[in-house]
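Exercise 3.2. Students should predict the tertiary structure of the chain below and write it as structure tokens, then compare their answer with the key that follows.

Predict this chain's 3D structure.
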Amino acid sequence: MINILLADDHPYLRRGLAQILTDEFSGAVIGETSNVPELLEQAQQRRWDVVVLDLTMPGRGGLEGLHELKRLSPNLPVLVLSMHPEDQFAVRVLRAGGAGYLTKESAPQELVQAIKVISRGGKYITPKAAELLTSHVHQHGDHEQPLHRSLSDREDQVFRLIAGGSTITEISDQLSLSIKTISTYRTRILEKLNLKANADLARYAVQHHLVE
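Answer key:
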């Protein structure tokens, strides 16, 4: 029997995932959470074999949740299942301790295979993610690597929201952080990217394929 905790703020998606997993894993216990605080609470309440984590959730994002999970339960395997392409977040997830990264466009059978590998203590790294990791290793310390690689996870999150057109107030509400804090992040981002305004951030994000 396997215990799997699903963390995603879309109930219909959780229901679909739960159906796929119960069909594949006889007797599986499937837990569900819709935000990071619930995730951290449930992760401490019982033993889980795998956590399947979405990155885009209200309040504290999935990447922040991953860092906190690994701090609280270093040996708990986490598979990130995200709407974002691998080239946007796979390297950050794997460096943060994630055991694998899949997009939500992946076939159900690939999800099942990833969970089997991860629950046995392995890592599930797609060919694309492996390529990105190799590229990252080669570029580490290279002054010509893209400037956005220097952003922290939270700075990267705020950067993408600003570039996507969200206002400081909207980001403050979404991340449950003060407007002053978001403004501070914005200032740091502009400094690190050598840019001056939100329009420059949006242009940079489009040029580097960081937003749709």
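Discussion points: Strands lie at 3-7, 29-33, 50-53, 78-82, 100-103. Residues 179-193 form the longest helix (15 residues).
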